[in-house]
């Protein structure tokens, strides 16, 4: 947990997360009946396990494996100079060409929209998809850019003083979504 943040409430447990991800996978299948042209791309870090879980649900429902890629947007961020002197770039991996594919970007939380804008910028450097859609586990509002998710797990109104913390087993050793509150400095 980041410094100066204290837990306020747990809004989703592992079972609730699984149910929501299953629903999101069903919505994606309904919107894209030809799964052969579908590619899920997880935005590092927690968009990746979300994309993997959605892909697993689609395979369980439809019996068809959907490729999952990883986008590392580090160098595409508009706040790169403020996050670190030497940012860690872990790399992007797309398992196939995105030309003429429907790419579903996956991320854990949609907030200002700046992460998604960076992901779109990077994605276009790899080709020309047929369409790009957005799937997010949590939409917390407070957009600064005109970006809207196509598939939303849960809308959670928040204050600017709150932070949404999404945890996945693969990255954090637990599955839950919590609201944290920024502490005040003395």
Question: Can you describe this structure?
Answer:
This protein is of the alpha/beta class and 186 residues long. Helices cover 28% and strands 29% of the residues. The chain has a five-stranded parallel β-sheet. Strands 1-8-7 form a three-stranded antiparallel β-sheet. Helix 2 links the parallel strand 2 and strand 3. Helix 1 crosses helix 2. The longest helix is centred in the first third of the chain and has 18 residues. The mean pLDDT is 92.
Short overview:
By secondary structure, the protein is α/β, with parallel strands linked by helices.
Mean pLDDT: 92
The major pleated sheet works out as:
5 strands, parallel
Mind telling me the CATH class? Alpha Beta
Any guess at the CATH architecture? 3-Layer(aba) Sandwich
Number of helices: 5
Tertiary shape = globular
Question: What keyword list fits this structure?
Answer:
186 residues; alpha/beta; Rossmann fold; 5-stranded parallel β-sheet; 3-stranded antiparallel β-sheet; 5 helices
Secondary structure layout:
Elements (H helix, E strand, L loop, with lengths): L4 E8 L1 H18 L6 E6 L3 H16 L5 E4 L8 H4 L18 E9 L3 H11 L6 E9 L11 E5 L6 E6 L1 H4 L3 E7 L4
Parallel strand pairs: 2-3, 2-4, 4-5, 5-6
Antiparallel strand pairs: 1-8, 7-8
């Amino acid at each position: 947990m980041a410094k100066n943040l204290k837990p306020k409430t747990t809004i989703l447990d592992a079972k609730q997360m699984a149910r929501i991800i299953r629903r999101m996978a069903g919505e994606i299948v309904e919107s894209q009946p030809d799964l052969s042209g579908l590619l899920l791309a997880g935005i590092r870090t927690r968009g990746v396990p979300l994309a993997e879980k959605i892909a697993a649900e689609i395979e369980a429902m439809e019996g068809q494996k959907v490729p999952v890629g990883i986008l590392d947007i580090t160098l595409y961020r508009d706040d790169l100079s403020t996050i670190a002197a030497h940012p860690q770039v872990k790399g992007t991996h797309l398992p196939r060409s995105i030309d003429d594919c429907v790419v579903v970007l996956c991320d854990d939380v949609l907030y200002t929209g700046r992460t998604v804008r960076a992901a779109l910028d990077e994605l276009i450097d790899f080709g020309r998809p047929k369409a790009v859609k957005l799937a997010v586990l949590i939409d917390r509002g407070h957009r600064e850019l005109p970006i809207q998710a196509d598939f939303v797990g849960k809308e959670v109104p928040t204050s600017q003083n709150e932070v949404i913390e999404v945890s996945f087993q693969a990255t954090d050793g637990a599955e839950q979504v919590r609201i944290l509150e920024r502490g005040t400095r003395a």
